[in-house]
């Protein structure tokens, strides 16, 4: 048995060493296949890892579950449970009210080491506070306070111990630690010592009614993220606290979030399927051609007594040797490529993306690549194993079973006809080459057409009404918008006007006003919001209880807090035009008289019972003045973004009328367009103003939104093109291998037809026509299939959303001359190599 194994190993090694050209092509194919698998695995693992971290940062904690109201005795019971791997505790003191921090919620808290670490807020320089006069802050809070990040700095914070009173107190601390801030979290943390927190609470174990001072928080982490809610429920049951303590699962670990992460990785999974297909096409073709050219050798082995299984082992042995060379190289190159692509595909300002080094990347890539090689070897090994010695002697480059037909003609065979006939001598090989080439070109056309159909104006329509939008610092504040805030100062507007390039502007003011809901509006609400609609709303909105409480007030016809806007210019024109006008007619001149108001309804079409707001023609009294509802608008994001989560019936007045009613209010938002040539100058001016005079002011530009969209979609776009290019390269490699093998295997045949009169020029022309035939058929199939894919599939995929379908085959037009050049060049180079041997030498050669 050992001798048989030794003989098979020797035969495999000698056959392997003899097929140097085949080995080179096969190793390149395996290397490319493995490289793409590794790159896709790296990107998939890295994207999942980084997206999870992004959601964890947005949630503000890495803990699996947490509670925002609990007693110390209850904490002691829960943390002693064996299922709890780690836990953290915090005591909330209050929120900072320094004017410099307007628009940014900063919570004063005591935190244990593990709690601070789970909140991404553990000091990287210094430590957590230990004395009552110490504090730890992030760099963004320090920057807004105008304090340089250095240990020992003095920090003074104002906060309210009693939320029912406007009185605040100030405390001065010494900075004992700091870390890099993160804007994506809902609030920044100001860590104080436990002594300070307990002293501020006055010894109370929990907050008083309507207060937050003394609130205990607890976060728990388990061994894994499976069944978090079930584990939490079991712990509460074991501790006898069911119904007494309520935990909330971290949204980053929810099924919905995991589905979103999976959806982001779908392009990677599709890419793996395509890579497998492309790799199979070329590796299979390489071994198919190799077996066909060495079929006489395998026939001789059969004569000497070799079995089917032994011959198959020789084929698979060669595949194993090629894999041992190609797969490790592909793993290294693929991971290096993935390492470079991860920062490009995962663009975020919140943290630096990390490249995963999970063992699954290398194990999975190697396994997939090896399976591709093994599957590719199955049919060639079967062909070599079942051939008989007699069949081996008669085997030619033509496909098995093909029957030659006698061709008659008065003028004899033309070079084109001979080239065409040679192309189909081995239909399987030709078919594989055509499929390999066509697949890459069609995929390239698909991805390009889909990306070309993206309409940036449609994307920006719901997000931006101007080149620049300035938001007051308190617009997104957790404590609510402050109409008296003066982040957008007149001095800034004067600077912009002095530039002389501002082309159009728009103002937005806002004020919350308590108004009674009319009977008609209450009826519209009851009709529109059916129980099914409310149940659906409750299923996905975590703020539904808050919304529902104020909604019930409105339906009952009670007094409701309305957000009254004052708008003009760009924002008013956008809000009252096109699809945003749901009912009524907007007359700018009549609206400017100050006798009318616009009602904002839902982002939906009117139902049979009307829209859930005031009806057109109704009269509403605001600050003692009567207005008539002129029209109903759909909510425009640049106008309503930053509003309260409670149910609201927003109203829009003309800006000058609004300032007459509320003269003390300042701008909430300001919109303006500038000349294209001054975009960079204006952007620089705003950035400098934000950093020096209005730190909390938010700046949004159209270009920023475009860049944000490109960053979000870069993953699928880049991978789509990358996979297309690699598959196209695999196709070209397949074509090169087929042409080279076809010419080398027919060198005696060419010598014979040259000996009877065919010139070198005629032979070169025939081979060139054969290569151009490959290119011609590939292009024909590519144009036909791409037209169908783009015209049907891409059209259907871009029917909705931010797309305007564009039929384009630009990648094919670009690749056509390149493919034709390759189709002409490769046969010419092969022929030159063939010419190095004389006709006599080729006739004497043994196949």
What would you note in describing this structure?
The chain is of the alpha+beta class and 847 residues long. It folds into 4 domains: 1-60 and 254-395, no CATH class; 62-249, no CATH class; 409-454 and 711-847, no CATH class; 507-666, no CATH class. Helices cover 54% and strands 14% of the residues. The model is unreliable at 400-404 (pLDDT under 50).
Keywords for this entry:
847 residues, alpha+beta, 54% helix, elongated
**Major β-sheet annotation:** 10 strands, mixed
Low-confidence stretches: 400-404
Rg, alpha carbons: 36 Å
Taking all residues together, what is the mean pLDDT? Answer: 82
Helix count equals 29
Helix content: 40-55%
- End-to-end gap: 33 Å
How would you summarize the topology of this molecule?
Layout: H1 2-18, H2 20-59, E1 65-67, H3 72-79, E2 86-95, E3 106-111, H4 113-118, E4 125-126, E5 134-138, H5 139-145, E6 154-159, E7 169-179, E8 188-192, H6 194-201, E9 215-221, H7 228-238, E10 248-249, H8 255-293, H9 295-303, H10 308-345, H11 359-386, H12 389-394, H13 415-423, H14 427-452, H15 456-461, E11 468-471, H16 490-499, E12 502-516, H17 519-528, H18 531-540, H19 544-555, E13 559-568, H20 569-575, E14 581-584, H21 588-592, E15 596-600, E16 619-622, E17 625-633, H22 637-640, E18 651-654, H23 655-661, E19 669-674, H24 679-692, E20 698-701, H25 702-745, H26 747-755, H27 760-797, H28 810-834, H29 839-844
Parallel strand pairs: 3-8, 5-7, 13-18, 15-17
Antiparallel strand pairs: 1-9, 1-10, 2-3, 2-9, 4-7, 5-8, 6-7, 11-19, 11-20, 12-13, 12-19, 14-17, 15-18, 16-17
Helix pairs in contact: 1-10, 2-8, 2-10, 2-11, 2-25, 8-11, 8-14, 8-25, 10-11, 13-27, 14-25, 14-27, 14-28, 25-28, 27-28
């Amino acid at each position: 048995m050992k001798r048989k194994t030794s003989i098979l190993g020797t035969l495999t090694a000698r056959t392997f060493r003899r097929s140097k050209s085949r080995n080179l092509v096969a190793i390149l194919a395996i290397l490319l296949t493995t490289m793409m698998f590794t790159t896709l695995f790296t990107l998939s693992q890295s994207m999942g890892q980084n997206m999870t971290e992004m959601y964890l940062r947005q949630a503000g904690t890495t803990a699996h579950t947490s509670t925002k109201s609990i007693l110390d005795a209850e904490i002691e019971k829960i943390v002693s449970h064996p299922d709890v791997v780690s836990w953290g505790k915090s005591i909330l003191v209050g929120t900072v009210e320094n004017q410099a921090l307007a628009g940014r919620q900063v919570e004063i808290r005591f935190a244990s080491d593990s709690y601070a670490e789970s909140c991404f807020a553990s000091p990287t320089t210094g430590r957590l506070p230990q004395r009552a006069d110490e504090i730890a802050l992030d760099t963004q809070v320090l920057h807004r306070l105008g304090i340089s990040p250095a240990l020992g700095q003095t920090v003074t914070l104002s906060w309210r111990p009693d939320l029912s009173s406007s009185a605040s107190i100030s405390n001065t601390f010494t900075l004992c630690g700091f870390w890099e801030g993160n804007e994506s979290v809902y609030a920044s943390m100001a860590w104080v010592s436990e002594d300070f927190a307990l002293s501020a609470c006055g010894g109370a174990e929990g907050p008083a009614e309507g207060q937050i001072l003394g609130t205990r928080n607890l976060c728990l982490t388990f061994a894994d993220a499976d069944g978090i809610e079930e584990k939490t429920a079991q712990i509460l049951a074991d501790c006898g606290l069911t119904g007494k303590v309520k935990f909330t699962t971290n949204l980053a670990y929810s099924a919905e979030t995991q589905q979103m992460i999976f959806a982001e990785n779908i392009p990677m999974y599709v890419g793996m399927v395509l890579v497998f297909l492309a790799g199979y096409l070329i590796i299979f073709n390489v071994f198919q051609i190799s077996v066909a050219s060495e079929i006489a050798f395998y026939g001789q082995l059969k004569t000497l007594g070799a079995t089917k299984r032994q011959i198959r082992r020789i084929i698979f042995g060669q595949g194993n040797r090629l894999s041992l060379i190609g797969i490790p190289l592909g793993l290294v190159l693929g991971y290096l490529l993935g390492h470079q692509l991860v920062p490009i595909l995962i663009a975020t300002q919140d943290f630096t993306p990390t490249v995963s080094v999970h063992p699954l990347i290398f194990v999975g890539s190697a396994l997939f690549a090896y399976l591709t090689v093994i599957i590719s070897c199955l049919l060639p090994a079967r062909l070599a194993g079942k051939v008989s010695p007699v069949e081996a002697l008669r085997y030619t480059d033509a496909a098995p079973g093909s029957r030659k037909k006698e061709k008659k003609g008065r003028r004899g065979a033309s070079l084109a006809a001979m080239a065409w006939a040679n192309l189909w001598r081995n239909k399987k090989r030709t078919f594989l080459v055509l499929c390999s080439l066509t697949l890459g070109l069609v995929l390239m056309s698909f991805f390009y057409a889909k990306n070309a159909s993206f309409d940036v104006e449609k994307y920006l329509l719901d997000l931006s009404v101007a080149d620049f939008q300035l938001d007051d610092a308190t617009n997104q504040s957790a404590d609510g918008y402050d109409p008296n805030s003066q982040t957008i100062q007149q001095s800034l507007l004067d600077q912009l006007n002095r530039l002389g390039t501002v082309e159009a502007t728009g103002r937005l003011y806002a004020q919350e006003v308590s108004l009674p809901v009319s009977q008609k509006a209450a009826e519209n609400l009851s009709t529109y919001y059916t129980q099914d609609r409310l149940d659906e709303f409750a299923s996905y909105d975590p703020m539904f209880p808050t919304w529902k409480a104020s909604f019930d007030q409105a339906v009952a016809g009670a007094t409701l807090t309305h957000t009254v806007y004052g708008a003009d210019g760009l924002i008013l024109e956008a809000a009252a035009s096109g699809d945003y006008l749901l009912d009524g007619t907007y007359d700018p001149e009549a609206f400017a008289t100050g006798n009318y108001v616009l009602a904002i309804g839902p982002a939906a079409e009117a139902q049979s019972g009307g829209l859930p707001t005031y009806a057109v023609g109704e009269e509403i009294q605001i600050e003692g003045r009567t207005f008539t509802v002129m029209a109903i608008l759909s909510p425009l994001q640049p106008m309503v973004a930053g509003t309260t989560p409670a149910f609201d019936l927003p109203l829009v007045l003309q800006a000058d009328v609004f300032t007459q009613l509320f003269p003390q209010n300042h701008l909430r938002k300001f919109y303006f367009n500038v000349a294209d040539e001054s975009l960079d100058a204006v952007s620089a001016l705003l950035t400098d103003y934000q950093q020096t005079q209005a730190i909390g002011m938010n700046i949004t530009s159209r270009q920023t939104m475009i860049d944000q969209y490109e960053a979000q979609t870069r993953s699928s776009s880049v991978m789509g093109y990358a996979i297309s290019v690699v598959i196209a390269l695999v196709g070209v490699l397949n074509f090169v291998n087929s042409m080279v093998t076809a010419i080398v295997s027919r060198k005696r045949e060419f010598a014979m037809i040259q000996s009877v009169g065919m010139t070198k020029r005629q032979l070169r022309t025939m081979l060139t026509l054969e290569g151009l035939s490959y290119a011609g058929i590939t292009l024909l199939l590519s144009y036909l299939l791409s037209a169908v894919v783009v015209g049907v599939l891409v059209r259907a995929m871009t029917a909705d959303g931010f797309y305007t379908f564009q039929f384009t085959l630009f990648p094919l037009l670009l690749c056509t001359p390149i493919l034709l050049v390759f189709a002409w060049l490769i046969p010419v180079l092969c022929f030159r190599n063939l010419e190095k041997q004389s006709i006599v030498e080729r006739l004497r050669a043994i196949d």
